[in-house]
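Annex B. Sample input.
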Amino acid sequence: ALSASYLFQARRQFIEAMRAPLSREPHLLSHPEEPYTLHLKPSFPEESSKYRDLLKKNRLKESELGFTFAGPHRDDLSLLIEGKEAKLFASEGQKKTATGALRFAEWEELKTRTHLKPLFGIDDLALHLDETRQHKLKERLTHFGQVFLTLPTLPPHWHPTATLFHISKGGCQVS
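Annex B, continued. Sample output.
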């Protein structure tokens, strides 16, 4: 119960720390009128004594089933666009844009904490982005240090100083 309470508080602090950078990120890939927020849905009472009581209450049934009904492993972190859950209401492009904004905000927070430009890696970000958003993504990535970005196809006029690795079943080519 104490460890679960600690994890919950750490997650809450993370969400609070992400508020400012996440509020700056949407306009970098999308429209500024699409605000993004994070929401933590805990599966257990915040107070460790109440969670301990819940564990005691469910102990026999959970022992029989081999797992616990509530705890940090059951928490859910939701990314909201204009107050609605992205995974339920957003288009694929909006989901990718929101995911990108979250990753950019994480990068900004890590940079603030370490005073270094951290490595940035993201998979298939440009896959569902229209041409305008791909252009904004390209501009945004120039502010990062080292970037690992995977794409199924290379958008036209990609970054001129990028080192590109073309990976296929036949091997890998560097250009």
